[in-house]
């Protein structure tokens, strides 16, 4: 499978300096593709409830529609990333569940999985929590009639985002490299350097339709067949993370046959070519399709 540390021992710090600022989610396009697919599959009752919650939400970090709100959790996290870091510190770990590929466990990746303190809204929960546990907490709030409208709106916005996050393989896996953020890459034939996490977040997704979300969503939607939907409905949120982790091992970190390069800082990186993309693109498309279907199913269940 070709799984191995991507950076030479002793050169990790230098290679990390060469990589862009770490990112923690699909790019905007990926999340908007997931939301586009999900919104199309909402029941009339669920769509009415979702639209009603978002209609009374005055938050201006994104546009107020369902698809735009799929990027809200990133905008919220980053809104004070370079200043007070209050929102950033409180929520940035909620976006991933970095299960180590060499024997890591969900328990370890989720900080021991402490329960949400009694009476504490999920939006005010501890910073040390993973995407799996936060998604379950917000799912419970969304389906609870006693949840205040303001908290239910936050739950919805976090859910729309975190379902997408968990399905990104490098959000549910780590190889002692910050989920691929510390793996320097060049996407052949370009010599422009990036990192593996960013490549999966944005560059692979944009190959589906550039920055046209409707075009990309239409491409991904071809995978949403009755047979696939029946398969994807099975499993828990924990299972979704496990699936994504397996794809990271099998595909994202599979550098079989790839060349390496040495960057200006002396770090070793991977040159990703068309053979790598041929392995990666089907995984990206399926992950986005699964996330769209599962997000719709989760919301339909919450508002049944």
From TrEMBL:
Leader sequence segment: 1-25
Keywords from the named record: Disulfide bond, Endonuclease, Glycoprotein, Hydrolase, Metal-binding, Nuclease, Signal
Spans through the membrane: none
Pfam families to which the protein is assigned, alphabetical: S1-P1_nuclease
UniProt cross-references to InterPro entries, sorted A to Z: PLipase_C/P1_nuclease_dom_sf, S1/P1nuclease
Record-linked SUPFAM superfamilies: Phospholipase C/P1 nuclease (SSF48537)
Name of the protein in its database record: S1/P1 nuclease
């Amino acid at each position: 499978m070709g799984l191995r540390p991507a950076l030479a021992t002793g050169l990790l710090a230098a290679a990390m300096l060469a990589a862009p600022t770490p990112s923690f989610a699909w790019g905007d396009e990926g999340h908007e593709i997931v939301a586009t697919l999900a919104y199309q599959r909402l029941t009339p009752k669920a769509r009415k409830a979702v639209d009603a919650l978002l209609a009374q939400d005055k938050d201006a970090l994104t546009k107020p529609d369902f698809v735009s709100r799929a990027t809200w959790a990133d905008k919220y996290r980053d809104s004070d990333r370079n200043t007070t870091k209050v929102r950033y510190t409180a929520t940035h770990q909620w976006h991933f569940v970095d299960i180590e590929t060499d024997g890591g466990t969900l328990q370890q990746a989720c900080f021991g999985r402490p329960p949400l303190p009694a009476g504490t809204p999920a939006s005010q929960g501890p910073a040390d929590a993973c995407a799996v546990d936060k998604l379950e907490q917000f799912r419970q709030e969304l389906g609870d009639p006693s949840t205040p409208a303001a908290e239910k709106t936050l739950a919805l916005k976090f859910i729309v985002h975190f379902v997408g996050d968990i399905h990104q393989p490098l959000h549910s896996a780590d190889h002692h490299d910050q989920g691929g953020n510390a793996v320097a890459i060049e996407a052949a034939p370009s010599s422009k350097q990036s990192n593996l996490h960013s490549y999966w977040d944005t560059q692979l997704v944009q190959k589906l339709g550039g920055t046209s979300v409707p075009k990309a969503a239409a491409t991904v939607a071809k995978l949403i067949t009755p047979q696939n939907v029946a398969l994807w409905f099975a499993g828990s949120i924990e299972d979704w993370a496990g699936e994504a982790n397996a794809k990271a091992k099998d595909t994202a970190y599979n550098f079989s046959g790839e060349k390496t390069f040495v960057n200006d800082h002396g770090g070793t990186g991977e040159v990703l070519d068309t053979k790598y993309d041929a392995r990666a693109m089907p995984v990206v498309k399926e992950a986005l399709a699964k996330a769209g279907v599962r997000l719709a199913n989760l919301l339909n269940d919450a508002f049944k």
